[in-house]
Specification:
The complex is a heterotrimer of chains A (425), B (261) and C (324). Chain A has 425 residues and is of the alpha/beta class. Chain A folds into two domains: 240 residues, P-loop containing nucleotide triphosphate hydrolases (Rossmann fold); 78 residues, no CATH class. Chain A is built from twelve helices and 16 strands. In chain A, the strands form three sheets. A six-stranded mixed beta sheet of chain A has the order 6-7-8-3-9-10, with helices on both faces. In chain A, strands 11, 12, 13, 14, 15 and 16 form a six-stranded mixed beta sheet that branches. In chain A, strand 14 and strand 15 form a beta hairpin. In chain A, helix 7 runs parallel beside helix 8. Chain B is α/β, with parallel strands linked by helices and 261 residues long. Chain B has two domains: 138 residues, Rossmann fold; 80 residues, no CATH class. Chain B has nine helices and nine strands. In chain B, the strands form three sheets. In chain B, strands 6-7-9-8 form a four-stranded antiparallel beta sheet. In chain B, strands 3-4-5 form a three-stranded parallel beta sheet, covered by helices on one side. Chain B is globular and about 65 Å long. The relative contact order of chain B is 0.10. Chain C is mainly alpha-helical. Chain C has two domains: 75 residues, no CATH class; 193 residues, MetI-like (MetI-like fold, Orthogonal Bundle), CATH 1.10.3720. Chain C is globular. The termini of chain C are close together. The chains are: A alpha/beta (425), B alpha/beta (261), C mainly alpha (324). Chains in contact: A-B, A-C. At the A-B interface, helix 7, helix 8, helix 9, helix 10 and helix 11 of A face helix 4, helix 5, helix 6 and helix 8 of B. Chain A: Its main location: membrane. Chain A: This is Peptide/nickel transport system ATP-binding protein. Chain A: It comes from Acetobacter lovaniensis.
Chain lengths: 425, 261, 324
């Protein structure tokens, strides 16, 4: 449902950061994430594994309590800051105002209790209902979710139901207290395609029948396109792009969104001989570049992408789409940058960096003396740290191994100026 | 219990003794969905890949020498676009996509003619999935491989396959050229399947999803197995199981009332 | 319903046969031990020797000897002890069984209650000093040998401090039947109970804690938290309830093993005339009929407990219920 009403958003998340400390190192999982969800809106949170989408949901639900995890930022929900609530206040909100459904309904239900028992439990935790009243409501809910023979199904154990029925029961449980916000974490990933269509259908109907807003977390662009009003694309813990689903899919602005959409094989039209794949893999949180996280895989990388993170949308103007990418003058033509990637190395057995198939890229490296002198080869293709050095030059640290020996030691590869690469500011 | 025949290269391999089957197995290899579970975590990639070469002999009956093995491994790394240094490392040091490349390399060690790939890309991220699909396509072209590519993602299937067999509850319901099956499906299940796939297109026409779920394989429905969920079910479907019949050249359907265009 | 029962019965018979055959073979394959001489006693008259040899069939092949032994044990129940001539072993075990049962049941109550308490508290305070202290205590409990602990306790309560107000209530070593004096029964057993339970409290609380900690990381616990339930409810109704499945199966086996004579050391130290002590005596004097009888008795209990554990599984875990 289009939400161009001027009413304040139901949930306004501002500068959400989640990080954890491991061996004295702070590892960022989610960085400065801001978004909002309006009344009865479905917001899709898309990203690959490790992009921090589930962590975002858990942080909003106050379900992260592992030692060493630090959550900061601001999440205004109905006039309260979710991140500042006490455990008890949060508990009263969880399940009643904000409910959550999970990917695998098999493991998400306690195996030793019946479905009905577990739904009753949630009802009775938030409302003063007798056992019988709770069960009546449970059966009603299951029926509304399209569960056949709800009275009997309520008396069955999770393992006795099919995946689709379990997910329906899960949704029934989540909706039992009429929450204003439903967070669905990959609700259809574990299901068959035909059953997935049924569940998505059900989710779309929820907001009219229950008036709930939905935060739909998924990795499937198809699911987003079919279900969500607006979309937030996450890459490596940072927002890459946000906007209405329609605009975002029609005119993706961030190179990542565009590349992601392009890499999905088409169902209609001519079959491409090769898919336009994104080279490489998303970085590990520890190996996240300080600049634009997508830069090492981006076709349009230029100098300003690298040393500093791209300007993030500080305040999200609703319905205005802002890609979190460096400002560019027009569409950068790949020819503006170095045409191909090579690793210039004195030793013949060094590997070209990185194995980027086709496409153009922008960086040229030359080994320094330490590398050239040893009998080694490049081992790890992912940059581990990237540090600014005075004078605008920056260096990359790679892992390096002696041939045959298992141990690794670091060597630095210094960036070498190439004519095509603009000098760093 | 299994019945029927599997004919490989003109030879029925269903009841072959192990001794004769073993050399044949060299020509058939598998790639699995879980790229991590299918690699022994305690062994280097080089060891993992060299093992089949140490066990099997060359086609002319000689043992592989360390030289030829090393040469073959480097060749393989090049084939799947991994650095040679990867041979010295352990499975956990790689990302999901790279591990799947290693699995493909492992399947290719003995130069098979047939590779059975069981959902090889469904556990991968979208941005990595395309790389692996491309790799499969490249390898097929350069090595002349035959694939049995098992997948649930119709878009991936469309991208990679020449022919498609759609299965429902243990039986093939439709079989034909990829474009025919996916664009002119004749079986109600295939039709529902193509409609149910969520496409990354906003405002695409939405169809009413198929009702119900796949029945348990323990007690399959009588007659046509799909009749419990079929939108066009007739009384005949409940009693009589349809057989796979030709409805057009290279297009076979197991349905009493196929949708013909 | 009938089939599983029959299968279980068949298993029981098979296990009993295997164990009895093994025990029998060990003793009769031992060279240099003429059973006739042992039963008839030192310097027995040739006629007596002949009589014994006939009665037990020692002049016939081994399988026949085994069959006679089994007949005397299970059917006529007139198998007599070698060492203590004339003493029938079956009634002897029947007299000892209630003592062991009293000892083990009481200890079991203590160890179940304490270990659940310790395990749950430790899991709830995971990583805190409470957790570390409780688990350390558990480890100490596991490491203390029961015979040493028993002796030390005896030394304190029976000797040195017996006359102080603290331990003057402690009766002398030995057993008082429940039917004779419930109060005396309790007083006589309360210290053996605690001593026997110490090790099991250690083991069970540590296992339960580990189980609970693992379960608390499961998806369904996350769901329970997302439902807005209180932490106590999540820990007890969802966590502990699920962890009990492993707990109960372990408990069944340990309990049976103890009832079957595994509490030997405790019984010996506290002078309780239970099955364990009987086994100990039989082993000391190489009293084959008695060893045979106690081993069979123990086997029966273990097999029986196995069946009970399976039944408890059916009750506790609906997934198992459907698999049958």
């Amino acid at each position: 449902m289009p939400t161009n009403t001027p009413s304040p958003p139901l949930l306004d998340v501002h500068d959400l950061c989640v990080s954890f400390t491991s061996r004295g190192q702070v590892i960022p999982i989610v960085e400065n994430l801001s978004f909002s969800i309006g009344e009865q809106e479905i917001l899709g949170l898309v990203g690959e594994s490790g992009s921090g989408k589930s962590v975002t949901a858990m942080a909003l639900m106050g379900l992260i309590d592992a030692p060493g995890v630090h959550v900061s930022g601001f999440a205004r929900f109905k006039g309260q800051d979710l991140l500042g609530l006490s455990g008890k206040q949060m508990r009263a909100l969880r399940g009643r105002e904000i409910a959550m459904i999970f990917q695998d309904p098999m493991t998400a239900f306690t195996p030793v209790y019946t479905i009905g028992w577990q739904i009753d439990e949630q009802l009775r935790a938030h409302q003063s209902l007798s056992r019988r009243q709770a069960r009546t409501r449970t059966v009603e809910l299951l029926g509304e979710m399209g569960v056949p023979d709800p009275a009997n199904t309520a008396n069955r154990y999770p393992h006795q139901l099919s995946g689709g029925l379990r997910q329906r029961a899960m949704i029934a449980m989540a909706l039992s207290c009429n929450p204003s916000l439903l967070i669905a974490d990959e609700p259809t990933t574990a299901l068959d395609v035909t059953v997935q269509a049924q569940i998505l259908d059900l989710m779309r109907r929820l907001r009219t029948t229950y008036g709930s807003s939905v935060l739909l977390i998924t990795h499937d662009m198809g699911v987003v396109a079919e279900t969500c009003d607006s979309t937030l694309v996450l890459y490596s813990g940072r927002a890459a792009e946000t906007g209405t689903t329609q605009d975002l899919f029609a005119h993706p602005q961030h190179p990542y969104t565009a590349a992601l959409l392009a890499s999905i094989p088409p169902m209609n039209g001519p079959r491409p001989t090769r898919l336009p794949a994104i080279p490489g893999a998303p970085p590990q949180p520890l190996e996240r570049p300080t600049g634009c996280a997508f830069a090492p895989r981006c076709t349009y990388t230029h100098a300003s992408c690298l040393p500093a993170p791209p300007p993030r949308f500080a305040r999200l103007a609703r319905r205005i789409r802002l890609p979190a990418c460096c400002p560019r003058k027009g569409i950068p033509s790949p020819s503006a940058f170095a045409p191909a990637q090579h690793l210039f190395c004195e030793k013949p057995h060094a590997v070209p960096f990185p194995h980027r198939a086709g496409g153009s890229s922008s960086l040229i490296f030359r080994c320094n003396a330490a590398f050239a002198g040893g009998k080694g080869c490049l081992q790890d293709l992912q940059p581990q740290t990237r540090a600014n050095t005075p004078g605008g030059r920056w260096r990359l640290l790679y892992r390096y191994a002696r041939r045959g020996a298992g141990s690794c030691r670091g060597i630095r590869l210094r960036q070498v100026h190439t004519g095509a690469l603009p000098a760093a500011a | 219990m299994s019945a029927g025949q599997i004919v490989f290269d003109g030879q029925d391999i269903t009841r072959l003794p192990e001794r004769i089957l073993r050399p044949l197995r060299q020509q058939m290899q598998m790639v699995f969905q879980d790229s991590y579970a299918s690699l022994n975590p305690r062994r280097r990639i080089g060891d993992l890949l060299a093992e089949p070469l140490r066990v099997h002999r060359t086609p002319d009956g000689r043992k592989h020498t360390p030289m030829t093995i090393a040469h073959r491994l480097e060749e393989l790394m090049e084939l799947v676009s991994l650095p040679r240094a990867a041979l010295e490392r352990y499975p956990h040091e790689f990302s999901g996509g790279q591990r799947q490349r290693i699995n493909i390399a492992r399947a290719l060690v003995l130069s098979p003619r047939l590779v059975v790939a069981d959902e090889p890309v469904s556990a991968l991220d979208v941005s990595v999935q395309a790389q692996i699909v491309n790799l499969f396509a490249d390898l097929q072209k350069s090595l002349g491989l035959t694939y049995v590519f098992i997948a649930h993602d119709l878009a991936v299937v469309r991208q990679i396959s020449t022919r498609v067999a759609v299965m429902y509850l243990g039986a093939i319901v439709e079989l034909g050229e990829t474009d025919t099956v996916l664009h002119n499906p004749a079986h109600p299940y295939t039709i529902a399947l193509t409609q149910a796939v969520p496409r990354p297109i906003v405002g695409a026409a939405r169809h009413a999803p198929l009702r119900g779920e796949i029945p348990s394989p323990v007690n399959k429905p009588s007659g046509c197995r799909f009749h419990t969920r079929c939108p066009a079910v007739q009384t005949r479907c409940q009693n009589e199981a349809p057989t796979l019949t030709q409805i057009a050249p290279n297009h076979r359907v197991a349905c009493h009332y196929p949708v013909l265009k | 319903m009938i089939m599983p029962l029959l299968r279980r019965l068949g298993q029981t018979v098979f296990v009993l046969f295997g164990i009895s055959a093994l025990v029998f073979a060990v003793f009769f394959a031992t060279p240099g031990a003429d059973p006739t001489a042992r039963i008839a006693g030192r310097n027995a008259a040739p006629q007596t020797m002949e009589k014994v040899r006939k009665e037990y069939g020692f002049d016939r092949p081994l399988p026949v000897q085994y069959a006679i032994m089994m007949k005397k044990l299970f059917i006529t129940r007139d198998l007599a002890s070698y060492a203590n001539r004339g003493e029938l072993v079956v009634p002897e075990i029947m007299r000892a069984a209630p003592v062991t049962l009293s000892l083990v049941s009481g200890a079991a109550v203590i160890w179940v209650v304490l270990s659940i308490g310790m395990g749950v508290v430790a899991a709830a305070c995971k990583g805190s000093w409470i957790d570390r202290t409780l688990m350390m205590a558990g480890l100490v409990g596991i490491s203390i040998p029961v015979f040493w602990l028993g002796q030390v306790v005896n030394l304190i309560t029976q000797n040195r401090y017996h006359d102080t107000w603290l331990f003057s209530w402690v009766p002398g070593l030995g057993y008082v039947p429940f039917t004779q004096s419930p109060c005396g029964w309790f007083l006589a057993l309360v210290i053996p109970w605690c001593v026997l339970a110490v090790m099991f409290v250690g083991i069970y609380s540590r296992i339960l804690r580990a189980d609970l900690v693992a379960i608390m990381g499961e998806d369904f616990i996350r769901t329970a938290r997302a439902k807005g339930l209180s932490p106590t409810r999540i820990l007890l109704r969802h966590g502990l309830r699920t962890a009990l499945i492993t707990f109960v199966s372990l408990f069944g086996m340990d309990f049976a093993q103890l009832v079957g004579g595994g509490a030997l050391l405790t019984e010996v130290v506290f002078g309780l005339p239970g099955v364990g002590r009987l086994t100990y005596q039989a082993l000391n004097s190489l009293d084959l009929p008695l060893i045979m009888a106690t081993v069979m008795y123990s086997a029966v209990f273990v097999v029986l407990a196995n069946a009970l554990v399976d039944a408890a599984y059916l009750f506790l875990d609906p997934r198992v219920r459907d698999a049958h």
